[in-house]
Design brief:
This protein is mainly alpha-helical. It has a domain of 140 residues. The protein is built from 13 helices and four strands. The strands form two sheets. It has a two-stranded antiparallel sheet. A two-stranded antiparallel sheet has the order 3-4. A hairpin with a 2-residue loop joins strand 3 and strand 4. Helix 5 crosses helix 6 and helix 6 crosses helix 7. The longest helix is centred in the middle third of the chain and has 22 residues. The chain starts with a helix and ends with a helix.
């Protein structure tokens, strides 16, 4: 702990003292300024647009060789600022809150497909994009601590019900269909995504209230990972779905041991 306090960056120092050491009271208030003194966090915050978004995108990531936050999307930016230790009432997070709650809406408005939108109207792609953004926004709001907000709880319940209904259906047992020489996920497939799992991880009360559904998802994600890549058919297009969790990449001890050299 003393090494962290001496050598770590400001956000890590702050979170170590507040989340690990459990500093409270006057001492905690004395270090509240630490996350806001971190230059990368300030740089990220000041690039936010007036509408609460970053770069008019939702899930975009900076390029592999980018040295800063160029082209970062709203959700990665919000999560990064939160992980820097900024409070949910800090200006960037307050400003982003409106668009995040708007993305929870159960609609297929193409105006809210942002960077994944297409020039030609494609209802299947719009539906897929809105569903993806909806789950990502729910995960982000849960991480920010809005578990008790009825808007988030309603969205979480719908996401969970949709996922569990799929897992319990015949399609959940056999999710793959053959297109040419390729096995792809059927258009109606709705496996849990990394965003669904993140949302549930940050909603302990909700998990307790929906224990059976969470257990069903657990059974799914602990099954061996299939050999097929997660590619889903939308209309005539086959779209990669890397955010879908199709099983456990390390389903047994031998797989874990084999993976250790690459860790």
């Amino acid at each position: 702990m003393s090494w962290l306090i001496e050598h770590a960056s400001a956000p890590i120092k702050y979170r170590a003292m507040t989340e690990i050491a459990g500093t409270e009271g006057l001492v905690a208030r004395d270090i509240d300024w630490l996350p806001y003194s971190y230059r990368p966090a300030i740089k990220l915050a000041v690039t936010q647009s007036r509408d609460g978004m970053w770069n008019q995108s939702v899930l975009s990531l900076p390029g592999r060789h980018a040295a800063d936050f160029t082209n970062i999307g709203t959700i990665p930016a919000v999560r990064r600022i939160a992980e820097y230790g900024w409070g949910i009432e800090s200006p960037p997070l307050v400003l982003a809150r409106r668009i995040l709650f708007r993305l929870l809406a159960e609609d297929n408005d193409p105006a809210f497909t942002f960077e994944l939108g297409t020039k030609a109207r494609d209802d299947d792609i719009v539906r897929r994009t809105r569903g993806l953004f909806r789950e990502a926004a729910a995960a982000t709001l849960a991480q920010l601590g809005y578990e008790n907000d009825p808007r988030l709880r309603g969205a979480a319940r719908r996401i969970l019900e949709r996922t569990v209904t799929y897992l319990n259906s015949p399609l959940g047992e056999k999710p793959w269909m053959r297109v040419g020489n390729t096995h792809v996920l059927a258009p109606e497939s709705a496996p849990p995504s990394i965003f669904t799992l993140t949302m549930l991880a940050h909603m302990p009360i909700f998990r307790h209230e929906h224990f059976s559904g969470v257990e069903r998802i657990y059974d799914w994600i602990t099954q061996p990972l299939p050999r097929q890549e997660a590619v889903q058919l939308f209309g005539k297009k086959m779209v990669p779905q890397p955010h879908l969790v199709m099983g456990d990449v390390l389903p047994h001890r031998n797989a874990v041991d084999a993976d250790i050299p690459f860790a």
